[in-house]
Amino acid sequence: MKNWLRFLIVTWLAIGSAFGFSFSRDSTAVDVVLAANLPHEARQTLTLIKTGGPFPYARDGIVFGNYEKRLPLHPRGYYLEYTVKTPGRRDRGPRRIIAGERGEYYYTDDHYQSFRRIQE
């Protein structure tokens, strides 16, 4: 019976790792979205981030604190945030792309309540 349980645990961890899930307490799982499935404005913002701007909002490129801990935990300054234009809004709206130091990007359309990792 112990061997069977060990087999199940090892298999579960291997499958989870193969799909990019982390089982540590210091990491947060987020959904994935293909870059091609992002709204047009988000794809534009992603291009601006990768080419270094110019950015339409003064607060683009500021440090994102991850205070809600909905993204994997890293030291302050690891994440930067960028505004994604929201049609019909005069303010910055709720949509953002968060860029990680290692080249990972996350999209939120509900002002940090949920995130999806952008897969290109």
Automatic annotation (TrEMBL):
Pfam families the record matches: Ribonuclease
InterPro entries (alphabetical): N1-like (IPR000026), Ribonuclease/ribotoxin (IPR016191)
Alphabetical UniProt keywords: Hydrolase, Nuclease
Top-level taxon in the UniProt lineage: Bacteria
Record-linked Gene3D superfamilies: Microbial ribonucleases
Coiled-coil segments: none
Gene Ontology MF, one: hydrolase activity
Protein name: Ribonuclease
Organism: Dechloromonas denitrificans
